[in-house]
Amino acid sequence: MQRWLVIGARSALGQAVCRAALARGDDYRGLTREPGDDPRLCGWQGDEASLLRGLSQWQDEGYHISHVLICVGQLHGVEFAPEKRIDELDIEALLALMRINAALPVLCLKHLLPIVKNAHANIVVCSARVGSIGDNALGGWYAYRASKAALNMLVQTAAVEYARRAPEVRLMLFQPGTMDSPLSKPFQRGVPAEKLFSPDFVAGCLLKRVEELRQQPAGKAWFVDWQGQTIPW
Questions:
Q1: What DSSP character marks residue 217?
Q2: Residue 232 is assigned to a structural domain of this protein
Q3: Looking at residue 12, what is its pLDDT?
Q4: Domain that holds residue 38
Q5: Which DSSP letter does residue 189 get?
Q6: Which residues contact 126 (CB under 8 A, 6 or more apart)?
Q7: In the prediction, which pLDDT does 58 show?
Q8: How many degrees, rounded to 5, is the angle at CA 210 between CA 205 and CA 214?
Q9: Is residue 231 one of the residues assigned to a domain?
Q10: What is the CATH number of the domain that holds 184?
Q11: pTM for this entry
Q12: Is 86 inside a domain boundary?
């Protein structure tokens, strides 16, 4: 049996991965802002203290992690949207996205390291193609692009350290494509129907990429899209 830890378990992709895990005969535990009545979930309010409480609960339970999915992130909010021009750049929005999209995932990696250091485990962090500097030919979306590029650097830096301290752990930055979710909802108008993926479809793609992750070397995070194509940094 494979055992998942899903951080952001109430997100569209998080829920789909939890469903897929159960359908395969695996198990999951999760952290989320609104755990509801699911006994497999703990509350996490985006702070270090509640993150540690949740992780400690699963350790005390003797839950041995095989795979981790970190799918926390934000693209837009009530008071801000992706910038079309640099004139629209707002420092508060930039800092907010840096915290949510980059700082919180690497905080998770900080506290996961002592838990998985002696395990054969895979850690998947949701990223975005717009976080690729080499792939950026369109411009715009300053804050979101920057936060995802920062995330990629932080995860790669963690992968170097994990290779020394947790050599059997592999890290992956996963680009899910355009998934039908609250994050992408305002931007779906121009997306062809065949390019707008359901969360269950994306979860299936993610599971395939996880199966391939063990082929990747330690010390380098694999930045890959839903269909298995490596994305340039």
A1: P
A2: no
A3: 94
A4: 3-225
A5: T
A6: 8, 13, 69, 70, 71, 72, 73, 173, 174, 176
A7: 86
A8: 145
A9: no
A10: 3.40.50.720
A11: 0.94
A12: yes
